[in-house]
């Protein structure tokens, strides 16, 4: 993994733990704001500010994450033409989502024109939804193939088990016939020996 993009993706992924923690703060503050909005407006305002601050922080932590989709296309574009197409569509949607999410963050903190925020938000959300659709299709196909492979494996095990039982039955029958022939031969030999003795 000496590729520059690979190293950058690994470096960016190290912030996922912090992002998840801040995400927890964001949704806790959102729930508290919703719960106390009618009874304690002042407290609700504080939690709303916390929600906004954590949301902006998360956008900062996700800087450069659009490279993850790009790197996935470079490293694992799919094993078949169908999967390659799904990979391009799904990862393209994810890249659009993260890239315009970065621009949305810059618009909300005032680096870019604040009027662009609404448009950036729409494009980002559209890219996210677009990517999710094809990721879900990918997962459903993989699940279907997994179920089919499992069924084939079960059938193969049953066939092998049946063949093993038939082979065992054949061995037992051969052993039984061989034992019967041996016993009959012994009886004949004993009878002849007795007749000769008499």
TrEMBL record:
<keyword id="KW-0812">Transmembrane</keyword>
<keyword id="KW-0472">Membrane</keyword>
<dbReference type="GO" id="GO:0016559">
    <property type="term" value="P:peroxisome fission"/>
</dbReference>
<comment type="function">
    <text>Involved in peroxisomal proliferation. Promotes peroxisomal duplication, aggregation or elongation without fission.</text>
</comment>
<keyword id="KW-0962">Peroxisome biogenesis</keyword>
<keyword id="KW-1133">Transmembrane helix</keyword>
<comment type="similarity">
    <text>Belongs to the peroxin-11 family.</text>
</comment>
<comment type="subunit">
    <text>Homooligomer. Interacts with ARC5 and FIS1B on peroxisomes.</text>
</comment>
<protein>
    <submittedName>
        <fullName>Peroxisomal membrane protein 11-4</fullName>
    </submittedName>
</protein>
<dbReference type="InterPro" id="IPR008733">
    <property type="entry name" value="PEX11"/>
</dbReference>
<feature type="transmembrane region" description="Helical">
    <location>
        <begin position="120"/>
        <end position="141"/>
    </location>
</feature>
<keyword id="KW-0576">Peroxisome</keyword>
<dbReference type="Pfam" id="PF05648">
    <property type="entry name" value="PEX11"/>
</dbReference>
<feature type="transmembrane region" description="Helical">
    <location>
        <begin position="83"/>
        <end position="100"/>
    </location>
</feature>
<dbReference type="GO" id="GO:0044375">
    <property type="term" value="P:regulation of peroxisome size"/>
</dbReference>
<dbReference type="GO" id="GO:0042802">
    <property type="term" value="F:identical protein binding"/>
</dbReference>
<dbReference type="GO" id="GO:0005778">
    <property type="term" value="C:peroxisomal membrane"/>
</dbReference>
